Amino acid sequence: MRVFVFRVKWWYIALFILLAFTSLLPQVRTPLIVAVTSRARLVPIYEVKTDEKKVAISFDATWGTELTDEILSILKTYGVKTTFFLAGNWVDKHPDYVVKIAAHGHEIGNHSYSHPHMNSLDERGISYELEKLDAMIRDLTGQRTVVFRPPFGEYNNRVVSTASSLGYYTVQWSVDSLDWKSLSSNQIYERVMGQIKPGSIVLFHNAGPGTPGAIRRIIPDLQQQGYSIVPVGELIYKDNYYIDHAGVQHPGRGGQ
Q1: Rounded to an integer, what distance in angstroms lies between the CA atom of residue 170 and that of residue 150?
Q2: Which is more confident, 24 or 160?
Q3: How does pLDDT run across 172-181, given as a tens digit for each residue?
Q4: Residue from 94, 106, 111, 205 carrying the catalytic annotation
Q5: 117 and 161 fall within a common domain
Q6: Nearest-CA neighbor of 109 among 18, 231, 228, 201?
Q7: Within a domain: residue 256?
Q8: What global pTM score does this model have?
């Protein structure tokens, strides 16, 4: 009987210690869960961390061609190569311009086939959007797309991971010209030049009415400031990099 009483006392002590320890668990686990969630969130490349004075300007093409020849002429005048993110509906309507853009030496990026809300698609749907457009561009130009910009700037982990599994770097932008809002050339110029810095990725559209006049000033001014303007695929790191929570791509493995 004494032995039984002795054991009961030790069980009470053990239970007390267990309860006391359990009460501390939420304080320990909560930040760990937050950290895991944060690290698990996949983020596209918005800009690049670099000490070099180089930037990328890019053009999304989803409607119209009226200003495209003028844009190509300006880029040629200043010896600049950029990236044109093409949507499949635009490629369907203007295959001659796809060939022309490639012939001018510009990089062609994948902007999806039907310009859908990618977050609503499953992996199969995302793959279809990217692979169908890539096949169309390869048939026209022989050029494979390696950078991908999601329509509407929308993405989630499934979009980024599926694109990555197909060999794509998902890219957004750090400077939005807002040329699609029909801003004047001067407004676009002031907006872009006020935000641009080494490693910036600038978003333009090939059909923005103020875009040709703006880049006619932006490009030579950047060059005079010592900037190199390169395609997105040349600005980003292709390996040995990490992307922080703000979408800044860094060289090395420091964030992993």
Answers
A1: 8
A2: 160
A3: 999 999 999 9
A4: 205
A5: yes
A6: 231
A7: no
A8: 0.83
